[in-house]
Design a protein that fits this description.
The radius of gyration is 25 Å and the shape is globular. A hairpin with a 2-residue loop joins β17 and β18. The chain is α+β, with helices and mostly antiparallel strands. The protein has 13 helices and 20 strands. About 55% of the residues are buried. It has two domains: about 325 residues, Glycosyltransferase, CATH 1.50.10; about 220 residues, Beta-galactosidase, Chain A, domain 5 (Distorted Sandwich), CATH 2.70.98.70. About 30% of the residues lie in helices and about 20% in strands. It has a six-stranded antiparallel sheet, with no helix packed on it.
């Protein structure tokens, strides 16, 4: 992809300006066009695999998700082509929208695009085409969604159909039903779980906030915008901390192949005026993420987004991932709805949170602790509250970062009796420099975990109960990547630092450090020091003082004088600062 020259005056951090976003959008749209069917109703992108919904649905996905990009770009020439495809699609080419079917997802992208570009596309269609299109979309009003962010797809379709006067009562019911449903999953401070349970990931930003806020904004509904815009603004205060100094989003959760769709809520805050971020910070974070992926091979030699993270990568895919799935990255171009003279495009870039200062930030609804260091721009997420066993290991590891990926060697895990599973996670709280949880293991035991952090240093403590005396315990650390150093040292109950079986030497990329121990006659307390860093730091043992004061208690003293006292006894867990 040939982009304009960097502008380091306006954008000293990334070099990217609006022109770079426009050029990237144009290039992505041009690259998919050869894969459209003759009638332009389907886009059959190459990819080597089909989703579980099948080729026809995948072709609709290619149409819908690239249409969304054309809508944000307001490309009239491209929209004319998509108008032809719409006419053919609703004439019998597209699959019908049924309960819990993928076309329901794509209907939302089509409806949103039509709503955003109504004078350029919808209003220019022949009346019979509009009638057939409204009828096709209308099935989304009563189709049963999966009980998660899918509840918002009928809301998005309903918003457009209500605007054009199609079945207003049914449209209103679909909107009200979906918005009411997500209230069950709102846990406060700007955070939703994606359906029942504790599923926290980027769906908060590119779905749970995006659709309600856009609906409220497009409907010009002050009440709804105050409600959902206020939640978005609070969410962005945390969300902005999920990006590393190199622009990388946190490598956690599912659907990571959507890549820079992670920038959508950043732009949404600027678009609606509901953001705590300055214009220069907003653009820096968004442009940083776009550049991060473009510089690392997200677009192949045909100009197409591949199924993966940097380049192709099966590890980040799900069964619903088809060749066109990555084009939900189109949501990242939401900022192009802002005019060129908007301050988000004209302000000088400002550093993001990970660049400004070291920080340890608690996120109470998710029971996460974010740990960032400005010297290397790394952000680490200590996960003591997110779980979705369907998508392990991207939910159930103890920690994630912007620079590492979950490894097959079970990084950041407590392995009890040879079993690395972590289910039934119970949050025990998060506070100033600490986070804790309890979970079950496949071996029948229970692990109480506490993480304490300062700078780049971590103290990890585990109390293991419910297993037989002599049960082996393995504690693993970070899977370091190129240019990073992963450290893991024993403090109590753990010995024998070694490389995980099957892993490469710990000085090489991808290595995982491991400590081992044995459960004694009573509850087992295991304590370790850990660090992931790109800097030459103080020796880890000198960076913090840890004293085990009892079979279930420890005191942690930091060089700045801060002290944590921890008790991990069952029923009496406590951390004091």
């Amino acid at each position: 992809m040939q982009l304009p020259a960097d502008d380091r005056e306006l954008s000293p951090r990334t070099g990217y300006t609006r022109a770079h976003w426009e050029t990237a959008a144009d290039a992505l749209l041009a690259a998919v066009e050869p894969y459209a069917t003759e009638d332009r109703a389907l886009y059959h992108l190459p990819g080597g695999r089909a989703s579980w919904s099948g080729r026809l649905s995948d072709g609709l996905e290619g149409y819908a998700r690239t249409l969304l990009l054309a809508a944000f770009r307001r490309d009239e020439t491209a929209l004319e082509r998509y108008a032809d495809g719409l006419a053919a699609g609703v004439a019998g080419v597209w699959p019908t929208i049924e309960d819990r079917s993928q076309p329901l997802v794509e209907a939302a992208s089509i409806a949103l695009a039509l709503r955003l570009t109504r004078p350029l596309l919808w209003d220019r269609l022949d009346e019979p085409v509009r009638h057939r299109a409204a009828a096709w979309l209308g099935d989304a009003l009563t189709a049963q969604p999966w009980p998660c962010n899918w509840e918002l797809f009928p809301v998005t379709v309903g918003g457009f159909l209500q605007e054009i006067g199609y079945e207003p009562d049914a449209s209103r019911k679909a909107i009200d039903r979906g918005l009411e449903r997500i209230e069950e999953w709102y846990l406060g401070d700007g955070w939703y779980t994606d359906g029942d349970g504790r599923k926290f990931d980027y769906y908060n930003g590119w779905a749970m906030h995006l659709y309600p806020v856009l609906h409220a904004w497009l409907a010009d509904d002050p009440r709804l915008l105050d409600l959902y815009g206020g939640r978005l603004e609070r969410h962005l205060a945390d969300y902005a901390r999920l990006f590393g100094g190199d622009g990388a989003p946190m490598h956690q959760g599912r659907s990571l192949t959507y890549r820079f769709a992670t920038t959508a809520p950043l732009w949404l805050g600027a678009l609606t005026g509901r953001t705590p971020l300055s214009p220069g910070e907003t653009r820096r974070l968004a442009s940083g993420a776009l550049r991060y992926f473009l510089d690392r091979g997200a677009v192949d030699d045909r100009g197409l987004l591949s199924l993966g993270w940097h380049g192709p990568d099966e590890a980040v895919l799900q069964g619903y991932s088809g060749p066109a799935s990555p084009y939900w990255a189109s949501k990242g171009f939401l900022g192009l709805l802002l005019p060129p003279d908007h301050e988000v495009w004209t302000a000088t870039e400002e550093p993001g949170p990970a660049e400004r200062a070291d920080a340890v930030t608690p996120i109470a609804p998710a029971n996460w602790l974010l740990q960032s260091t400005s010297s290397d721009g790394l952000v680490r997420l200590h996960n003591h509250g997110s779980e979705d066993v369907r998508y392990d290991p991207y939910y159930t590891r103890l920690a994630y970062s912007t620079a590492t990926v979950p490894s097959a060697s079970y990084d950041n895990s407590v392995i009890v009796g040879g079993d690395a599973s972590r289910t039934g996670i119970v949050p025990l709280g998060v506070g100033e420099g600490w986070v804790a949880s309890r979970h079950r293991t496949g071996s029948g035991g229970e692990v109480t975990s506490v993480l304490l952090a300062r700078g780049a240093v971590e103290v990890r403590a585990f109390r293991v109960t419910g297993v037989a005396e002599g049960t082996a315990i393995r504690v693993t650390g970070w899977a370091a990547g190129s240019g990073l150093r992963s450290e893991l040292l024993p403090v109590a109950g753990l010995v024998e630092v070694k490389a995980v079986p099957g892993a490469v030497d710990d000085e090489q990329a991808g290595a995982v450090r491991e400590l081992t121990g044995i459960v004694g006659a009573g509850p087992g307390l295991f304590v370790a020091l850990a660090r992931l860093t790109a800097e030459a730091d103080t020796p880890l043992r000198e960076a913090v003082a840890v004293e085990v004061t009892g079979p279930d208690a420890l005191v942690v003293r930091w060089p700045d004088g801060h002290v944590h006292e921890v008790r991990l006894e069952a029923g009496q867990f406590a951390v004091s600062c």
